[in-house]
From TrEMBL:
Gene3D superfamilies with a match to the protein in the record: 1.10.8.60, 1.20.272.10, DNA polymerase III clamp loader subunits, C-terminal domain (1.10.3710.10), P-loop containing nucleotide triphosphate hydrolases (3.40.50.300)
GO molecular function: ATP binding; ATP hydrolysis activity; DNA binding; enzyme activator activity; single-stranded DNA helicase activity
Claim: Nucleotide-binding is one of the keywords in the record: yes
Superkingdom as given in the UniProt entry: Bacteria
Domain (AAA+ ATPase): residue spans on this chain: 38-150
Protein name, as recorded: Recombination factor protein RarA
GO biological process: DNA synthesis involved in DNA repair; DNA-templated DNA replication
Short name of any one Pfam family annotated for the protein: AAA_assoc_2
């Protein structure tokens, strides 16, 4: 059975690598390693289809070293032993270890001495952030390089190369790829060259030749062959959390369009739970005291979305996102609680005044608990000056309003009015 087009078109040397010029371009780090034949183990991380395997294959082709590929999740320690034996005989083997973040301790312990003596040059590939997902013992023995999604121009170069290559590509099929079909192929696969090439191959091989013996690939054919692709990595992937981060930062920055874009990615992934959770966090972290009414409206919309489920959930979610993005912003409440927590770590709590302690049980009064407590509702305006903080923290202020909206200004005025009244009332009592 013939290998897929993406496999056949893998670069045979560094010069054939598409994209990643910051790593493999002239004078760049991996090119220098190859030219000097001073290879070191490395970890390549980035989205699927961006060239991690291609770079490893190209390094092997450029250096003429043996090249082997294993998967950390599915291949066994015995498979690693076979690679090690080959390395002893041939001198050096380049080992591409896919899903390296799933390497268990037994396999890791076997690999480490072979990495140390240089017989195996490990090229680990992963879609996960290696600083979060890969054991430090492996990480410390490898250089870490981030592989970037391919640009549309770079994807176009690779597609054209595949269409014109008669030996490994589709050159023998005499393909006419419409401009709008090519554009859709590049956009729909979102920087994943493997998906683009395999989608193109399906389109070509499933389309009949015309009377002139040519295969004409139109937009509908590409749409059928590629199908709709979600523009976000799987729910456990590092890219997924990057989208979530971008969503929150877009709302915080009041860019409604960007926020809707990143929300659309999460909706495409079907992740209602984490989207709803993050929007709740955003409502209280980034808007908070600046627009409490908006926060309540957004929370209502989020709750409605969860009750509806997809696809209808997208509608209340859009309402919530627009409300939050366009609302005035203030993180004063979050800063206040963080300040209180930091103060607690630094100073400790201090004894709670006895009159604030729980006094609902028999014998509490004998301990002095609840005695002399002033019940605010028994006083005019339902307020009375009374010390609530421990003695060691008396007068300490955590909330620092920003006054970014009329709502927060009104709360600020009330906050300052009560602080002044509290201070004056307690001073009068001392006299």
């Amino acid at each position: 059975m013939e290998q897929p087009l993406a496999y056949r078109m893998r670069p045979r040397n560094i010069e054939e690598v598409v994209g990643q010029q910051a790593l493999v371009g002239p004078g760049k780090i991996i090119s220098r390693m190859v030219q000097a034949k001073m290879l070191s183990s490395m970890i390549l991380f980035g989205p699927p289809g961006t060239g991690k395997t291609s770079i490893a294959s190209a390094i092997a082709g450029s250096t003429q070293y043996a090249f082997r590929k294993l998967n950390a999740a599915t291949d066994t320690k015995k498979d690693l032993q076979m690679v090690a034996e080959e390395a002893k005989m041939s001198g050096t083997v380049i080992l591409l270890l896919d899903e390296i973040h799933r390497l268990d301790k037994t396999k890791q312990d076997f690999l480490l001495p072979h990495l140390e003596n240089g017989r195996i040059v490990l090229i680990g590939a992963t879609t996960e952030n290696p600083y979060l997902s890969i054991n430090p013992a492996i990480r410390s023995r490898a250089q870490i390089f981030e592989v970037q999604p391919l640009t549309l121009d770079e994807m176009g170069v690779a597609v054209d190369r595949a269409l014109n290559d008669s030996e490994r590509g589709l050159g023998q099929y005499f393909v006419d790829l419409d401009a709008d079909a090519k554009k859709q192929l590049l956009y729909a696969t979102n920087g994943d060259l493997r998906a683009a090439l395999n989608g193109l191959e399906l389109a070509v091989k499933s389309t009949s030749k015309d009377v002139d013996g040519r295969i004409k690939i139109t937009l509908p054919i590409i749409e059928e062959s590629v199908q709709k692709r979600a523009l976000v990595a799987d729910k456990d992937g590092d890219a997924h959390y990057n989208v979530i981060s971008a969503l929150q930062k877009s709302i915080r920055g009041s860019d409604a369009d960007a926020a809707l874009h990143y929300a659309a990615r999460l909706i495409a992934a079907g992740d209602l739970v984490i989207l709803a959770r993050r929007l709740r966090v955003i409502a209280y972290e980034d808007i908070g005291m600046a627009a409490p009414v908006v926060v309540n409206q957004a929370i209502t919309a989020i709750n409605t979305a969860e009750q509806l489920g997809f696809p209808e959930a997208r509608i209340p979610l859009a309402n919530a996102i627009l409300l939050l993005a366009l609302a005035p912003k203030s993180n004063s409440a979050m800063v206040a609680i963080d300040a209180a927590q930091a103060d607690l770590q630094k100073r400790g709590g201090g004894p709670i005044p006895d009159y604030l302690k729980d006094a609902h049980y028999q014998g509490a009064a004998d301990l002095g608990y609840g005695v002399d407590y002033l019940y605010p509702h028994a006083y005019p305006g339902d307020w009375v000056a009374q010390q609530y903080l421990p003695d060691s923290l008396q007068g300490h202020q955590y909330w620092e309003p920003k006054g970014n909206s009329k709502a927060e200004l009104s709360y600020q005025q009330q906050y300052e009015k009560l602080r002044i009244a509290q201070k004056q009332g307690l001073q009068r009592k001392k006299k």
